[in-house]
Design brief:
The complex is a heterodimer of chains A (362) and B (367). Chain A has 362 residues and is mostly beta strands. Chain A is built from two helices and 20 strands. Chain B is globular, with a radius of gyration of 24 Å. The chains are: A mainly beta (362), B alpha+beta (367). The interface between A and B is large, with 62 and 52 residues.
Amino acid sequence: MRRLNTWIVAMVLAGLLGGCGGAPQAAVPAGAPELGLRAEMLLVTPATGPLTHVRVYNHSAQAFTGVLEVDYPEGWKLNKTAQAIQVAPGQTIRVPFAIEKGVNAPDNSYRAKLRVLPAAGKPPVTKRDQRIVCTSAPYLDIQVDGKADDWKDSIPATWWTYGRSTVVRTAWTKRTFSVLVEVGEDKHTPMADGPMVYPDAVQIAIAPRDAKLPEKAGDKAGRHEMLLAAAPDGPRCLVLARADQPVRGAADALNKPVDPLALETMPGAKLAIWREKETTFYELSVPVKQLTPIEPEPGREFCFSVLVHDGDSLTRRDWGVGAGLWPIQRLRMAWTPWKGGCWTQTPAFDSRIEWGFCSSAQ
Amino acid sequence: MMRTVTVTMVLAGLVLIGCDGVEKPAPVAPVEPAAKAATVSPPRDIEPADASRQIVFATASSDLEDPAAAGKAAAQAAKDQVGARPVKAVLISECYEGKDRKTQVLAGVAGVFTATLIHGGSTYGSFLQSGLAGGESVSVLVIAGKDVDVKVACNEKLDTAGLTLEQNKDELEKRLAAGGAELARRLPRTGDSRLLIVVADAHSPKNGPLVAGIQTVVGKRFPITGGSVNKNAGQSVVYYQGQMLADAAVGIMLSGNFKVAMAGRQAKENDQVIATAREGSAEAVDALAQQQAKPAVLLAFDCAGRKGRLKNVADELAAVQHSCGKRVAIFGTYNAGEIGPADLADKAPDVLSSGVGWHAMFTAIGW
């Protein structure tokens, strides 16, 4: 029993300290401007020489002028490693950096060190060390068959929550968009009819690059949102939201979560859920025509995110943590609450996180 | 037991509150950096080359769901433009998905033209004066007329399959260079040879050593343009004399009494993709004009990555039309690598064409 308590404490501490987003942003020195920094994920593999961006958000009431310095992995060559920036109060800017020479890492994890200085040569007013990944869906023809062997050329995005890993892989053809989510967990709890059960499930959201969040009930969802779960009648891909349909629920939706077993199944979707050792796999393919207006093309950006509901531990894993989103990007209207999900007073992160389509790795 | 439950409940509470604390959510409105205001010249209406040469570049496309019907429709539409002139080559750019559908496209085109005239590659789409050909579609460029000579050769085995840049860089580059040189050796060149078009299963940056190998035979200043075929798994096809090949490269040598002018531009963001398409196409057309020639066709070997960065794909074609008007034939394809004048700060000064990525390579042919 003492061992179990120790494990629980260790798990919580690991969660508090972990997350793949890297170290939290350094504390702001007294009197320094309040700036949020975030290196965006890479939308195509580094070796292809993509453009990447760093976001700078000015929390304060004063405009800021200074220099943004970036330091990406050793051996990479960028067109610039420093740029002058001006950020108005409340504004977020995206500063582009062209990767002229990048190297793909086998674990798809890259360091990005960010610093903002009031002027070149001055001490930084804020800095952030991140680990970023390439969040891209390569062209792959996936068969949903309960085996992960045809995912070997996909690009894994991994993050850690409370000491457990989650890996997300995506793929596309002109006809299908596929997702594989690997959830490290001790056991898998399916959905059940009857009294409240906290099942295990994966919630995904996919939206066009310029998607707007709904602000109130009745607004268009702007995203396609699905719940992947082992229902009493088998694995089901349940539709929580459609981009061109009104969003379910409102800001008080926590009090009125939708009943997942009453949701429709995504037409044409195929889903397999299985266990291997201490990992639960969710393998999904959805017809691209169900995801209008998203049209896969190499280099095209879209928005994608994942929530993993671990009913056994009542925890929620949020890709927003892995992507290093800011606390102010926790947004109530970004996800549709459902009965049995791990919902709390703390909203999940914005589901509109950068993701890209790319060609097959060769 | 009670102590364990209490500890667990407290810890669960900490867990559910979350790691980052609770802050009043505020929407973050990402703001793009203000685009530099660019001075854009008025749209141009470039006069095409006259009929003094018996050379025709006919273009057509089709996006019919039935690939064979699409191939036939595009081919027939182009053939109708050619009339009785002798057809020297048919270049196809198709993006149907899967080998079966690609085979059907080819069969459709071969129902109109002799198979041995058909060359080209699988791409990520095309654009002509008539518009975009995306989704699943096929575009054709028919080169016809007694005043143009077309010689075609193929290196059917670049011998690079299974090699990767990460693990076999030196060997891969060696084989590509050798493959390019062999391709060039198989292509006869005369004093009237003006342009080499290369379509290869060698995506950027592999097209770099391929082109360098070609240049060991034709020279560093000979105009070379072209594109790398679609690199998606199962979708890479080089067409040569009506055959479907992989790990291959085709060279199409155009010879005759006409002029050629080239320009290349690189870009990775929407506004720059559009601006460079406008600038690059204008530069090629203007460079041709400096040779006292009017364009009969503008070839554009463009990058699929550039296409992916466009908020509206049609904007790039509109930019090209801004520069060359709507009367000059355009044959543009989206590729996995491009050959032409590199828009790079560190490019070799004595080399006209390079194999690169993220570029739009424009070649104006005229008299």
